[in-house]
Amino acid sequence: AQSVTQLDSHVSVSEGTPVLLRCNYSSSYSPSLFWYVQHPNKGLQLLLKYTSAATLVKGINGFEAEFKKSETSFHLTKPSAHMSDAAEYFCVVSRGQGNLIFGKGTKLSVKP
Amino acid sequence: GAGVSQSPSNKVTEKGKDVELRCDPISGHTALYWYRQSLGQGLEFLIYFQGNSAPDKSGLPSDRFSAERTGGSVSTLTIQRTQQEDSAVYLCASSRRTDQVTEQYFGPGTRLTVT
To answer: Which tens digits make up the pLDDT trace of A59-81?
Structure first.
């Protein structure tokens, strides 16, 4: 069975400082993993996806994530936070047939 | 091009009434998904359609929930005899395929409030 655990429900950073949103996964086979972002009152948008081609995945808006099989992790990072990054972020694993299993979400706050 | 659209954006209904929520997927996408986002349960898969195959209804929480997809395009999610616990944001997504790696594109959602 597949599952994801987002280790922090809320992360707060200052503008210009690095962002780290943590995600651990559980999968009985090689997983496909995604990070989605949801801005207030807006739909979910794909940030990046891992599909076994490369362990370091670059996404939109300067975000990237590294797949670490030994640690069963897929943490999302960004070198320098921007005010517009404030949103809720979801780590997602695909359960085959395209069904997605979402983590509980991490709310990112960015302080000026 | 146009993204996934959903209507209505907001719906308030009385307990016990039936509601219909509509989803227009991206043109050419063969797969369509419904999810529910609520405070207590997070984001949950409800049902998906792939082409003319029988839908996967494994996520529907009760037999009060049903969905149809007409002509391989528009989908309607129906909730009969609504209950307060049905209050949530209902999200629709579509994708080109249903394999593990294909990105799903989400609509803005319908916020359902049952009073």
So the answer is: 999 999 999 999 999 999 999 99
Which of B19, B5, B21, B23 lies closest to B73, judged by CA? B23
Residue B42, token pair as written in the block: 């997070």
Name the average pLDDT for chain A.
Answer: 91
Q: Which residues of A8-42 are buried (b: 16+ CB within 10 A; e: fewer)?
A: beebebeeeeebebbbbbebeeebbbbbbbbeeee
pLDDT tens-place string over residues B6-56: 999 999 999 999 999 999 999 989 899 999 999 877 889 999 998 888 888
Phi and psi at residue B72, to the nearest 5° = 70, 15
Residue A96, chain B, CB below 8 Å: the answer is: yes
A72 close contact with B: CB closer than 8 A = no
B12 to chain A, minimum CA–CA distance in Å? 17
Residue B70 main-chain phi, psi, to 5 deg: -95, 135
Nearest to A42 among B48, B101, B108 (CB): B108
Contacts of A105 in chain B (CB under 8 A): 42-43
Write the burial class of residue B93 (CB in 10 Å: 0-12 exposed, 13-18 middle, 19+ buried).
buried
The token duo for B15 is 């307990």
